[in-house]
Amino acid sequence: MNKSTFIPGILAAMLVGSVASPALAGDPQTAMNKASCTTCHSVDKKMVGPAFKDVAAKYKGQDVNQQLFDKVRKGGKGSFGKIPMPPNSKAAISDDELKEVITFILKQ
């Protein structure tokens, strides 16, 4: 392979990589499915945990993004009943994905 085809090939691969890597970004539903949030939660119906619309209603008008971020990371209990929510690591959901999910939940 000569330089005239190698360098454009590298640039194309870099461009594809930079476009493909944020594919999950902006799709909170995919992130929630990947992290198994939807095992216990749904948008509009209480399951094991509260419905996302109930979370949004409880915290409407409040700046709780960091509080909810910490609760998802560390786990929590008592806010919506007796059943505790287990902690969720960065391996389950990245910080960026978690922030997008929280924004999505609070808009319900």
UniProtKB/TrEMBL annotation:
<feature type="domain" description="Cytochrome c">
    <location>
        <begin position="21"/>
        <end position="108"/>
    </location>
</feature>
<feature type="binding site" description="covalent">
    <location>
        <position position="37"/>
    </location>
    <ligand>
        <name>heme c</name>
    </ligand>
</feature>
<feature type="binding site" description="covalent">
    <location>
        <position position="85"/>
    </location>
    <ligand>
        <name>heme c</name>
    </ligand>
</feature>
<keyword id="KW-0249">Electron transport</keyword>
<feature type="signal peptide">
    <location>
        <begin position="1"/>
        <end position="25"/>
    </location>
</feature>
<keyword id="KW-0813">Transport</keyword>
<dbReference type="GO" id="GO:0005506">
    <property type="term" value="F:iron ion binding"/>
</dbReference>
<keyword id="KW-0479">Metal-binding</keyword>
<dbReference type="GO" id="GO:0009055">
    <property type="term" value="F:electron transfer activity"/>
</dbReference>
<dbReference type="InterPro" id="IPR009056">
    <property type="entry name" value="Cyt_c-like_dom"/>
</dbReference>
<keyword id="KW-0732">Signal</keyword>
<protein>
    <submittedName>
        <fullName>Cytochrome C</fullName>
    </submittedName>
</protein>
<feature type="binding site" description="covalent">
    <location>
        <position position="41"/>
    </location>
    <ligand>
        <name>heme c</name>
    </ligand>
</feature>
<dbReference type="Pfam" id="PF13442">
    <property type="entry name" value="Cytochrome_CBB3"/>
</dbReference>
<keyword id="KW-0408">Iron</keyword>
<dbReference type="InterPro" id="IPR002324">
    <property type="entry name" value="Cyt_c_ID"/>
</dbReference>
<dbReference type="InterPro" id="IPR036909">
    <property type="entry name" value="Cyt_c-like_dom_sf"/>
</dbReference>
<dbReference type="GO" id="GO:0020037">
    <property type="term" value="F:heme binding"/>
</dbReference>
<keyword id="KW-0349">Heme</keyword>
